[in-house]
Amino acid sequence: MITGATGLVGFHAAVALARAGHETRCLVRSEEKLRHAFAKTSVPVPDFVVGDMTDPEAVAAGFEGCDAVLHAAGLVSIEAKRAEEVMATNSRGTELVIGGAVERGLQHIAYVSSLGAIFDPWGDETHADGPIIEAENGYSRAKAHCEAYVRRLQDQGAPIATIYPSGIHGPDDPGLSEANHALIIFVRTCIFTTSGGYMCVDVRDLADALVAMLASGRTRRVIAAGHFLPWPALGDLLTGITGRPIRRIPGPGWMFRGLGVAGDFARRIVPFDFPLTREAMTFVTRFRPVENSPELEALGVTWRPTRETFSDSLRWLIAEGHLDRKRAPGLG
User: For residues 230 and 194, what is the distance between their CA atoms, to the nearest angstrom?
Assistant: First the structure.
């Protein structure tokens, strides 16, 4: 069973699992969206159950006859007014799907977490078994809460494999993910050239990692960080790919973190949801390289070049009408 099959990670994982010979069932809220996503692939539309991950009956129907589960679904929103909804939805979904898999005795369980759940911008090295980081925005708090729940089950002996990806990019994105939306912003508007950098992983490589993890049943917690690019290097790469200079706003890290503090203060007076926060700017200016877990290399997982990832993502964004072709004349 797969949750999130109409999102970027879940969709690519469902395709990769099918191509690897596995029979899959997707728990989705929209049959139309599932059919539309798979119509553009050589993979037939998988078996599916229409329902929400917070609905016990729908989740139970999804589990019927399955011996493995991949939980990749999640409500994503940075809007402050939706913080409670995000917490309630993601917490309940994780309890029903991951907790339900454990209760049913499944031996192959995979959970998609986030590198942000364990990355401390003021700390030292980041490890898959490192502590959960306290967060401020609603989505990050929900992710940390779900992470704590899954770890409690793992500590009790549950066979759950958790993967921590960085920013996830790639083509064929059924719901236009946050990371691909950020790529549009980079190309349309600007990037901040400051301290720190950007870490990203190709969703196709991430899907291969999930297939390998589910098949092996041996992994516990692994980091799928992909590649790190300092902000100036990201600007150079996107300029080279698009054939058009990417606008850059330079400045020291303390300046952007100060702007984030000002954004937090302004939000108390006039609510807005643009991610100019102290927390976000701390990650922007303090992100550093994180090592991929060696367990993934042992499973045969490799990481394609970032140029390929961004080139394919931008071609898809243009083809789907999310980005004007004039923004990337270098792609032809």
Answer: 8
* φ/ψ of residue 147, rounded to 5: -60, -45
Block residue for tokens 């770890």: 151
Instruction: Quote the strand ranges of 184-320, DSSP E.
Output: 191-193, 197-202, 221-224, 227-230, 248-250
0.85 exceeded by pTM:
yes
Report how far residue 18's alpha carbon sits from residue 319's, in angstroms, rounded to the nearest whole number.
25
Contact 278, 261 (CB under 8 A): yes
CB-based contact 70:10 (threshold 8 Å):
yes
Q: Within 10 Å of residue 113's Cβ, how many Cβ atoms?
A: 23
Q: What is the mean pLDDT of residues 125-139?
A: 85
Residue 14: phi, psi to the nearest 5?
-60, -40
Q: What is the tens place of the pLDDT at every residue in 173-208? A: 998 898 999 999 999 999 999 999 999 999 999 999
Cα separations in angstroms, 48 against 83, 95, 139: 29, 20, 27
**C-alpha to C-alpha distance for 286 and 199, rounded to whole angstroms:** 12
40: helix, coil or strand?
coil
Domains and CATH numbers, the chain: 2-234+283-331 (3.40.50.720)
